[in-house]
Design a protein that fits this description.
The protein is built from 28 helices and 34 strands. The strands form 8 sheets. Strands 6-5-9-3-2-12-15-14 form an 8-stranded mixed β-sheet, with no helix packed on it. The chain has a 6-stranded mixed β-sheet with strand order 30-29-32-26-25-34, with no helix packed on it. A hairpin with a 5-residue loop joins β17 and β18. α10 crosses α14 and α17 packs across α18. The longest helix is centred in the middle third of the chain and has 25 residues. The structure holds phenylalanine (PHE) and zinc ion. The site of zinc ion (ZN) has 4 residues, from α3.
Length: about 900
């Protein structure tokens, strides 16, 4: 195999030929499915005659080929490394091909594959080329007509995009259904599902009066787990009408749950295919977090029907056009249906931990990359989450009304087209009359901007001077960075009154909660008429995806934690305060000095626990210490053991000092109403379980008893899982083992619950975590070909910081072994799984060498393009 070559954005050319209509016939067979394709092809009007027709195709056995009914001779076409090439074609013609493929051998889960005996497809980004020869690029949009032929007994259900228009019996116990999708679409939105599935059906009437049938298709035993997804779907449909004026455009909308799926879910037109983990819920089997995740993903895929499907991407460099916008849309939807501040806190803490780490590592890339080897490697936190943060900044910059006008303009102007990020931003610029040219740099510049801020209050003149200085560290391939347009939402909180002071900047009144715009490398903002000395509250609600440094004292932070009017920054002040204390303790641990707890953190927690909370979910977040991963993000060099020890020390010190408060909070929130995934109940459960985690951190008899009773009460998965995790993560195997055994036996039949069972054990801090992983890899419920299992066992272990980073390198070796096997089975998953090893620069020299050693060992294999690209970057 020749070395994989990068593809460049600057090489983009419109296709020479387009396909206006695609007719497909699938004759299903596990080992030898026949796919007949008839493509209605036209030369692009601007393109010269004589250009060859180039089609993509991988792992296809060509059985027949004809143009306008005339079979082609061997010398009239060529099979190439990329696919199929026909040198001479008319300006307009019908191309017929027939190929054979083997879904049962497809472990990559791209193209047509089998999962639990059923057939399903995954075509984004470039899976359709494993189904038939085709111009597999998103700027070729065609209407589709698809006939699926299957065994009437084994595959009673035959689904594809659009509407069913014909069905019938065939000889030999076969039958068929023909589907027509009237909306032109790129082939990455094609889908087919066939198998013995059962459906749950509901209905929705659009604002415009269209009656839509809603179906969720699952295996029979999962029929009781679809209610929440269906309710979420209907809420999302209504929300998109009310918020964006977007209505559904077919008479049928289907969701299918499959067990083997690389990602969360896929927005195929009219036939969304979901990882079963992203759609199935039941109070007994799914946690509150899972319920919320399902709601968010169902909404996300549904929202793609406009942001992605009706208006799609010109090329894959524009991936964030659909993903950033759609994530932003689903974030807002979830904020509207849940506790909005908690939603934002969760988003940001995840973002700052995981996306910042990506931006700081060897695979850092802009939200719109300018080259890639394997697009499958670019479904990243940067494209999705940072893309969403950029759209959020846009919304805040232009205001909701102009943003909505811009969105309307975008959907109207580009309906049925494949467009670019500039097209989207241009609509926002036109609708708002703002110049967004500097803002566009956010899309092309990788790395996390850092802002160093300092301020000075001039008592005599009532003036507060705020100086902001921005810099973006170099990232691979981008040594020099230019200043960005960064909107900073801020308040000045008066230290006497504890209130937001009115902001006057250059004679202009900004209210008490204003936005300033940083355009230059360094800018000074002079606020006048500032009546008292303030503490600035900066980047409220995380107004930009940046790291903001301000020399806050611990007193300032304690002050902001109680007085800031911005809920997000109140939480963030508490996190910053805890981080300062953790810093000292990390240093103490490294220097072998006795650890001393910072009394200010204890007092801050005491105050939090004493107050009557208005939002329990927010309080639960405020009582949660920064994760080990986030603490690590703040350190110049990561010392996993010191971080773990310091965090554990803080947790135990708080538990010892405030034991009675935690007990009281636990008792006050243990009401056991019938389970509902509603904000108030969720908040109560989070608060109760955070309190329990403190009590269990000191493992006194009362805490243990509460955890044990909560586990045995078996009330709902949120509470059971929280208790089980605490028992399994305790130092007492006499608590861990019986609970694990009971849980494992009870749920042996349920793969999604067994995933949780795997994760809980391998994320325990005890030193046997690695041995457990090895042992569990032979468990009958584990399978290396199922991505959920790989994530639950291997992926979860790689997040277990002290055990994955064992000083003997055994954690790294185990991960590399699995990655090498997955390189053959499922390259996309292999390339994702290897991520923790690529972050070797962050660790001490011994660990660096061990990690690099494993990367080198992987490099010695015959690598898939996916892994090749990641490993080359990691070792560059
Ligand atoms: N487009 C899907 C989404 O974000 C994600 C996905 C990508 C799924 C590639 C499968 C393969 O909703
Ligand atoms: Zn998406």
């Amino acid at each position: 195999m020749s070395e994989p070559q990068p593809i460049y954005l600057s090489d983009y050319r419109p296709p020479a030929y387009r396909v206006t209509h695609t007719e497909l016939t699938f004759d299903l067979d596990p080992a030898a499915t026949r796919v007949k394709a008839r493509l209605h092809v036209e030369r692009h009007p601007d393109r010269e005659a004589g250009a060859p027709l180039e089609l993509d195709g991988e792992q296809l056995a060509l059985k027949a080929i004809a143009i306008d009914g005339q079979p082609l001779g061997e010398d009239e076409y060529a099979l190439t490394e990329r696919g199929l090439r026909v040198e001479r074609v008319p300006a307009r013609f019908l191309l017929d091909t027939e190929v054979e493929i083997a879904p049962e051998d497809n472990t990559a889960l791209e193209g047509l594959y089998q999962s639990n005996g059923m057939y399903c497809t995954q075509c984004e980004a470039e899976g359709f080329r494993r189904i038939t020869f085709y111009p597999d690029r998103p700027d070729v949009m065609a209407t589709f007509s698809t006939t699926v032929i299957g065994d009437a007994g084994r595959e009673p259900v035959l689904l594809s995009n659009g509407n069913p228009v014909e069905r019938g019996e065939l000889p030999g116990g076969r039958h068929f259904v023909t589907w027509e999708d009237p909306h032109p679409k790129p082939c990455y939105l094609f889908a087919l599902v066939a198998g013995d599935l059962k459906k749950v059906e509901d209905g929705f009437t659009t604002a415009g009066g269209r009656d839509v049938t809603l179906q969720i298709w699952v295996e029979e035993e999962n029929l009781g787990k679809t209610d929440h997804a269906m309710a979420s779907l209907k809420r999302a449909m209504r929300w998109d009408e009310e918020t964006y004026g977007r209505e559904y455009d077919l008479d049928l909308f289907m969701i299918v749950a499959v067990n083997d799926f690389n990602m969360g879910a896929m927005e195929n037109k009219g036939l969304n295919i979901f990882n079963s983990a992203a759609v199935l819920t039941h109070p007994d089997t799914a946690t509150d977090a899972a319920f919320q995740r399902v709601e968010g993903i169902v909404a996300h895929e549904y929202f793609h029907n406009w942001s992605g499907n009706r208006v799609t991407c010109r090329d894959w460099f524009q991936l964030s056009l659909k993903e950033g916008f759609t994530v932003f849309r689903d974030q807002c939807f979830s904020a509207d249906t849940n506790s909005a501040p908690v939603k934002r806190i969760e988003e940001v803490s995840f973002f700052r931990t995981a996306q910042f780490a990506e931006d700081a590592g060897p695979t850092a890339h802009p939200v719109r990359p300018d080259h890639y080897i394997e697009i499958g490697n670019f479904y990243t936190l940067t494209i999705y989450e940072k893309g969403a943060e950029i759209v959020r900044m846009l919304r805040n910059l232009v205001g909701w009304d102009a943003f909505r006008r811009g969105s309307d303009r975008y959907f109207e102007r580009f309906d049925g087209q494949a467009v670019t990020i500039e097209d989207f931003v241009a609509c926002m610029a036109e609708a708002s009359g703002r110049d967004l040219s500097q803002f566009l740099r956010w899309y092309d510049q990788a790395g996390t901007p850092e802002i160093d801020a300092h301020g000075e209050y001039d008592y005599a003149n009532g003036v507060y001077r705020l100086v902001l200085r921005q810099r973006t560290p170099a990232t691979p391939g981008q040594p020099d960075k230019r200043p960005l347009h960064i909107p900073i939402r801020l308040g000045l909180v008066g230290t006497k009154t504890g209130r937001d002071l009115p902001l006057t900047l250059d004679g202009e009144a900004l209210g008490t909660d204003g936005v300033i715009h940083l355009h230059e490398e360094e800018q000074e903002f002079v606020f006048t008429e500032v009546a008292e000395a303030p503490v600035p509250s900066l980047a409220r609600n995380f107004s930009a995806p940046v790291k903001l440094h301000f020399p806050y004292s611990r007193e300032d932070l304690a002050f902001l934690q109680t007085h800031d009017s911005d809920g997000f920054n109140r939480w963030d002040a508490g996190q910053r305060l805890a981080l300062l204390a953790l810093d000292d303790l990390i240093a103490a641990h490294r220097n072998g000095v006795e650890k001393v707890m910072d009394g200010r953190v204890v007092e801050a927690f005491r105050a939090l626990l004493a107050a009557e909370p208005d939002d329990k979910a927010v309080l639960a977040e405020m009582l949660t210490l920064p994760s080990e991963a986030y603490i690590a993000e703040q350190q110049p060099l990561v010392d996993v053991d010191a971080i773990h020890a310091a965090r554990q020390f803080v947790k135990q010190s708080l538990a010892l000092a405030l034991r009675d408060d935690f007990l009281r909070v636990y008792e006050a929130n243990r009401r056991e109403a019938p389970y509902a995934p509603e904000p108030e109940q969720i908040g109560e459960r989070s608060l109760k379980n955070v309190a329990l985690s403190y009590l269990m951190s000191i493992e006194d008899e009362e805490g243990i008893e509460l955890a044990r009773r909560q586990f045995e009460a078996d009330h709902n998965m949120t509470d059971v899982r929280a208790a089980l995790t605490l028992l399994v993560h305790s130092s007492r195997d006499d608590l861990a083992d019986p609970a694990l055994r009971a849980f494992g036996e009870k749920w042996a039949h349920d793969p999604l619950v067994m995933d949780q069972w795997f994760s809980i054990q391998v994320s325990r801090p005890q030193s046997d975590a690695l041995e457990r992983v090895k042992f569990l890899m032979d468990h009958p419920a584990f399978s290396l070909t199922n991505p959920n299992k790989v994530r639950a066992l291997i992926g979860a272990f790689a997040q277990n910081r002290i055990n994955f980073h064992r000083a003997d390198g055994e954690g790294y070796r185990l991960l590399a072994d699995v990655v090498i096997e997955l390189n053959r089975l499922n390259p996309e998953i292999a390339a994702r799984l290897v991520t923790p090893l690529t972050r070797w620069q962050r660790f001490d020299e011994t660990r660096q060498d061990l990690m690099k050693g494993e990367l080198e060992r992987i490099r010695g294999e015959a690598l898939s393009p996916n892994l090749y690209e990641v490993i080359e970057k990691a070792l560059a």
